[in-house]
Specification:
alpha+beta; BirA Bifunctional Protein, domain 2; two-stranded antiparallel sheet; binds phenylalanine
Length: 341
Amino acid sequence: MKEQLARMRAEALAALEAVKDAAALDELRVKYLGKKGELTAVLKQMGRLSAEERPAMGALANEVRAAVETALETASKKLEEAALERKLKAETVDVTIPGKTAHMGHRHPMYMALDEIKEIFVGMGFTVLDGPEVELAELNFDRLNAEEGHPSRDWSDTFYFDADSRVMLRSQTSPMQVRAMETMELPMRIIAPGRVYRKDEVDATHSPMFHQVEGMVIDKNVTMADLKGTLNKLVEQLYGPGTRTRFRPHHFPFTEPSCEMDVQCHKCGGAGCPTCKGEGWIELLGAGMIHPTVLEMSGIDPNVWSGWAFGIGLERTAMRRFKIADLRLIFENDVRFLEQF
Ligand code: PHE
């Protein structure tokens, strides 16, 4: 029995010394120390020993068990260390390999122009409003003094949702004037950028969807001089000091008097060229003093309050700002174009 134990110990230690993986290790554990293992088998024979032999054999068996357990533990640690070593090796990062540069995008040029406009107006104390693109014809037209039969209300110009022409895609940001008058305290200074929709064919200067920025001031003793001063400031900050403007009489149902503002052509400086179609000037926006009827319809007394409003085309502004020749480039999202800004 003594020899049996000694042989077992030698065998076990040799096997554990050479063990290659966790599964083999487990097998050895079961083989030597398990309930049906070799050590148990030896211990079962203890009954056959005499009372004198038993304690010495018991002590020896315990010693063998302890030795095998220690060897198991050592082998298990060795396996773990080897595994970690392998993992670290496999996951080594070579920090000297040149990286792949991430391709960073940036704001769309039209939104750069919009951010500039916002910044200029916020700097003058204006609040920026957001409003719905699906709008009531009542706000897009009636409350802006464009009554039934007005040409802009025609089905050939406007996207309606219903047969009664009551719900539509807004054709201008001007209904935001009404929404502001309905919800804001007087005096007020607001701008309201957003998409507008008209049934236009796509060409170099037209799109059925485009963007406007509406602006409006209502206060006491507001005059056309304030309008001109503010818009000249806008143009100067957008296009540089000394950029010349001109105000031409025009007509809008919701302003009186109404005007359009042109800027001097950036290409020819006013002499006339293909960009400005020989005019020397490029139209930038519509504006005017808010019609007293429009104020009245929103419950504002035109004898106490006065105001002005403007609507500027954002694509056109960006095109001039970044010298873009064709409107379609703004919407096509060709990265080769967009990357230039
Ligand atoms: N809404 C007008 C347009 O789309 C522009 C405008 C806005 C004119 C505000 C006057 C005042 O043409």
